[in-house]
Amino acid sequence: MAEKFFSEKNLKFTLYDVHKVEDLLKHDRFGDYNRESFDMILDTAKNIGSGFMYPLYSEMDKNAPEYTGTTIKVNPAVRQYMNTSGEGGWINAMFPAEHGGQQMPLSLFNACMFIFASANYSLSVYPGLTTGAASLIYNYGSESLIKDYAEKMVTGKWQGTMALTEPEAGSSLSDVKTSAEPMPGGYFHIKGQKTFISAGDHDNADNIIHLMLARVKGAPAGVKGLSLFVVPKYRPADSGELEFNDVNCAGCYHKMGYRGAPIAQLSMGEVDDCRGYLVGEQNLGLTYMFRMMNEARINVGLGATAISSAAYYASLEYTRERLQGRKIDEKNPLNTQIPIIEHADIKRMLLQQRAIFEGSLSLMVYAGKLVDLTTVTEGEEREIYELLLDFLTPIVKTYPSEMGITSTSQAIQCLGGYGYSSEFPVEQYMRDVRIHPIHEGTTGIQGMDLLGRKVTMKKGAAVKIFLEEIQNAIDEAAGISGMESSASDLANAAALWKDTTYSLLGIAAKGEIDLFLADATLYLELSGILCIAWQWLLQGIALSKTDSGENSDSDKNFSKGKMFTLNYFYQYELPKIHGLALRLKNSDGLTLKMKPEFFED
Amino acid sequence: MAEKFFSEKNLKFTLYDVHKVEDLLKHDRFGDYNRESFDMILDTAKNIGSGFMYPLYSEMDKNAPEYTGTTIKVNPAVRQYMNTSGEGGWINAMFPAEHGGQQMPLSLFNACMFIFASANYSLSVYPGLTTGAASLIYNYGSESLIKDYAEKMVTGKWQGTMALTEPEAGSSLSDVKTSAEPMPGGYFHIKGQKTFISAGDHDNADNIIHLMLARVKGAPAGVKGLSLFVVPKYRPADSGELEFNDVNCAGCYHKMGYRGAPIAQLSMGEVDDCRGYLVGEQNLGLTYMFRMMNEARINVGLGATAISSAAYYASLEYTRERLQGRKIDEKNPLNTQIPIIEHADIKRMLLQQRAIFEGSLSLMVYAGKLVDLTTVTEGEEREIYELLLDFLTPIVKTYPSEMGITSTSQAIQCLGGYGYSSEFPVEQYMRDVRIHPIHEGTTGIQGMDLLGRKVTMKKGAAVKIFLEEIQNAIDEAAGISGMESSASDLANAAALWKDTTYSLLGIAAKGEIDLFLADATLYLELSGILCIAWQWLLQGIALSKTDSGENSDSDKNFSKGKMFTLNYFYQYELPKIHGLALRLKNSDGLTLKMKPEFFED
Q1: Euclidean distance between the first and final Cα of chain A, in Å?
Q2: A591 and chain B: CB distance < 8 Å anywhere?
Q3: Which of A109, B518, B561, B597: disulfide with A598, CB 3.0–4.6 Å?
Q4: What is the mean pLDDT of each run of 10 residues along chain A (601 residues)?
Q5: How far apart are CA A485 and CA A567, in angstroms?
């Protein structure tokens, strides 16, 4: 099995050289950090990833969680990892000091998450889910909710979850039916069903704390009537002991991949004794949830990027060792076979993987830095970062997720028949990554979000900022020897994207909203390619500055490999925008006119 | 679980209306058949598929074959299916009468195989492997080999295999090392290892007969020294009893999908008692094998097409039943949710699946008919069919295989979280289809075959014929109301393909063969899209002739659905050629210049 699942050198290059996360240190919030502590934290993450998580990667897939009738049995390593995460301060690392946190920048934290997720994606999600849930309580919950729940959760002893989805309310959260009835004791009676709840129940935590959307009786229909509740599996009784809160685990689904983490079906209030505790104000539940959504969606993109990284390194190792075939001009079958990495088509498949996940990683770090900047700036400056972050989020979530399928599939292809065998590590990566275009909002939903909301918000303010950022990169690259043509290619691509966007906005202006949005998924795909091309240009610019002439051979190989990968992206991936733009500019409503009955046969 | 896995109406439309397989009946070889018997055979296949195979589809995945230490335990249904196949005459259906066969046209047989493979791909391969092996014996083996082996195999009691691959010889068959030493008794001592042998050993056949490539001692190195042998697991002893032939099953791989059929590792001659019986002449082994290769590769494309068909119908059923969300202009959350098939993006995902697999099916039937025509024609006419078939084979194998990943992935996406769950049928299809870009020659190998051999053979004769066939379709479609613009789009696409081809041939003319072939995989992808666009035009032409004005509502819906799917292909899939052609015309040898050490970090 491959031993390497990410590149420390590339991760640091992306953090420090491309996105200059050290710039964040000048802000008070991050003043306790420096480059040295950043590196130490990355080292710690690497040790946890290599030493503890990676060795469990295959085992957790092969022995997937099972429903016991009352809970879900997961690998005992989960408890150990949750404890490690709690003790190491990973769960609340990013929280502000007043919430007991370490004020770690998200850019750095996500770099660690990238390491964890590439080591073992399933295992990596347990503490992250707790982080999200605890953060909601700290930000919007009462002091007693913080004391009773959040403080326990960050120790890693209690699991947190985000309980949104119901059997009849997946993409359509406005149809959430779980009900909450106010009771004299200040709590609410909760009744309903939830499904697909990640880590929604398991036997490796002392308690499970659900941050749950429910509808207070009499609240408005739709999303405007959703409130947020803390709904624990066990609630603290007056005695101080924990008592069962009538949150019943009704089963778990078995999954194609991502099998180390269970998704539970839950049934609340079967004996009318499920208590929920309101977080913040009534009917603002979705608002609270969505304030976390950017980060949750960056997480999905990051997870997909990490899985693709691990698949790449496994396939790279194989292609270096596997001897098969000979050079095209070598006719003598008695000469020894060559490592397959010397075949052009194998190099193409490796370059494609690298172009996808290293480009994605750069975008992930960029997005993380934007989150950090929104926490340390104010006024107009902050608004710019927020707009850009909001705009990029659907792309950040989707490009790595959708292209992760292609990337991990190429890893399989590099191994041929062995790649298809479970005895080799790569097929699991393709199964694992397939969840990402689905959870936290499907690709279709992200497309509508990008085109229907983000492009149009504040009269296109985000589009303007986005294009300015791209233009800045183009201007800089145009002056760097060897990057002129990439700069020019990106300028053309940005112009094509802008044309396409205006063409679509022209449809919206005529009020034909369904036609405007019909191919939003393709628009998202087009935008993703443009974004990653931009991120590759930023990497090229950064490279040109690190080349001091005194670089080691290893540095030179890294630098050359990067430039080849940049050129690969511009030569092989970027041209895909032409087909997409052609379609988008010819919007004819084909999918609107197609009727369900025409699918009859 | 979905009950429909293919469309009888579409299959018959493709056979009879698009490709007019009834035209074959005028040839003596097929003179015993008529439309009525064709339909009866299809009905029988449908009954076997629906009644027996489909219900086992999920079970055979969940309870995969296991190595027992000496053989591989498979589902007991395998024996039953092999017997059914033998008794029903399916194994030797296409063989000529003098070989005991029914002279069934491949076009019809493949239509049945499409039904079987969409019902249960893993189960469908067992008799097909026997067919291939028995066919080799009938065509090139001695009378005694026919009597001792082939005649047993076609009963379904004995399993046949194609044993080519070795641990060090996968894509590179010239490195096959299994040795054969001539012995006084007229047989050869066989010694060596084989791996990835489909159905290479299992407990549901009375004997396993390997058609095995091995190298006679002293034979030339490379592929020119390979001979073909019958190597049975049990050989008939002088007593008439069967005795063990020292063919040892050393294990099986566990696979990502396609789990109902085992791939075995074999070890021959562990106690120096493995006998092989030469088929035909020494050193012609690969030649014999490759005469079957076109059909084997059509089979792979057909399997991928079939799996995509089954995934489509499962996702179609779900999207009709699942209520989620509302129309874009519907603001009232109290109104009931709509079936998701009414959302434009869902229709797009359904149309993409249908465009891929119905386009592929048309190409499969076309290729099958070409095979049939080569068996009933002679001289120049036959050469035209052979050239076209040889040319199309890498495309026929690859387009459905590679695009089957996309197609089945869209089926998952239509089901959202349920699609990712093993409790629903679609995730298995994506796992099952992933084998197809690998087995019977990887996509990379197919690309080199298309560009390096097929484009250039006989001074480009096949290219000329291919373009003429496309032009014929364009000319006909140009005169049909409603198809003019598709005809024109295909003309432009064919021109672009031709330009690209000439541009690449210009590189070859300069002797830069490695540069010429560097992006052969992309050229294959481009060619695949062109081919499927052509097949869709042929379907449109056929539709225009079936529209009698007296069609039933069901016929009208079918016809409208087809036209929408055709237009989908032209609007969404065909434009992808621009990006590919752009890259191919700018061949700069990027993947040739990229050195293995640049992948260091």
Answers
A1: 46
A2: yes
A3: B561
A4: 86 98 97 97 98 97 97 98 97 96 97 98 98 97 97 98 95 95 97 97 98 97 96 94 97 97 97 98 95 91 98 98 92 91 98 98 98 97 98 98 98 98 96 97 97 97 98 98 97 98 97 97 98 98 85 92 98 98 96 96 84
A5: 10
Closest CA–CA distance from residue B201 to any residue of chain A (Å): 17
Low-confidence ranges of chain B (pLDDT < 70): 1-2, 547
> What pLDDT was estimated at residue A292?
85
The pLDDT value recorded for residue B292 is: 85
- In this complex, is the C-beta atom of B142 within 8 Å of any C-beta atom belonging to chain A? no
Per-residue pLDDT, A524:
98
DSSP string, A362-415: HHHHHHHHHHHHHHH--HHHHHHHHHHHHHHHHHHHHHHHHHHHHHHHHHHHHH
Nearest neighbour of B560 by CB, restricted to A354, A437, A598? A598
Residue B215 in contact with partner chain A when CB distance is under 8 A: no
Which of A409, A435, A578 lies closest to B579 in CB terms?
A: A578
Number of residues assigned to chain B: 601
Q: Is B512 known to be catalytic? A: no
pLDDT of residue B71: 97
B318 CB contacts (<8 Å, ≥6 apart)? B2, B414, B415, B418, B424
List C-alpha distances in Å: B238 to A147, B54, B235: 86, 43, 10
In angstroms, the CA B297 to CA B317 distance is: 31
Nearest CA among B525, B435, B431 for reference residue B57: B431
Residue contact B420–A435, C-beta within 8 A: yes
Total-model pTM? 0.98
A226-232 and A207-216 as β-strands: parallel, antiparallel, unpaired? antiparallel
**Mind telling me how many Å the CA of B146 is from chain A's nearest CA?**
32
Q: Checking phi first, is residue B199 left (phi over 0); if not, alpha (psi -120 to 50) or beta?
A: left
Catalytic residue (one of B166, B402, B427, B440):
B440
The predicted pLDDT at position B1 comes to: 45
- SS3 readout for B8-58: HHHHHHHHHHHCCHHHHHHCHHHCCCCHHHHHHHHHHHHHHHHHHHHHHHH
Whether residues A328 and B196 touch (CB distance < 8 A) is answered with: no
Q: Which two tokens stand for residue A571?
A: 């030569």
- Give ipTM to 2 decimals: 0.97
Cβ of A341 and B599 within 8 Å?
yes
The predicted pLDDT at position B550 comes to 75
- Measured distance CA(B277)–CA(B231) in Å, rounded: 7
Q: Please name the residues between 462 and 481 in chain A that touch chain B, using a CB distance below 8 Å.
A: none
Contact check, Cβ <8 Å, A600/B558: yes
Interacting residues of A454 by C-beta distance below 8 A, sequence separation 6+ = A390, A391, A393, A394, A462
The three state secondary structure string of A544-560 is HHHCCCCCCHHHHHHHH
- B590 touching chain A per CB within 8 A: yes
pLDDT digits (tens, 9 = 90+) for A424-436: 999 999 999 999 9
B430 and A CB contact within 8 Å: yes
Residues in chain A closer than 8 A to B334 (CB atoms)? 221
Q: Which pLDDT score is estimated for A3?
A: 85
Chain A to chain B Cβ contacts (< 8 Å): 296
Q: Does B556 touch chain A (CB under 8 A)?
A: no
* Beta strand spans in B45-157 (E): 66-67, 72-73
Q: How far apart, in whole angstroms, are the C-alpha atoms of residue B299 and residue B393?
A: 10
Domains and CATH numbers, chain B: 21-66+76-140 (1.10.540.10), 156-283 (2.40.110.20), 292-591 (1.20.140.10)
Copy the structure tokens of residue A391: 């705009």
Asked if the C-beta of B162 comes within 8 angstroms of chain A's C-beta atoms, the answer is no
Close Cβ partners of A108 (under 8 Å, ≥ 6 residues apart): A15, A21, A33, A38, A41, A42
**Helices (H), ranges, A141-215:** 143-145, 151-153
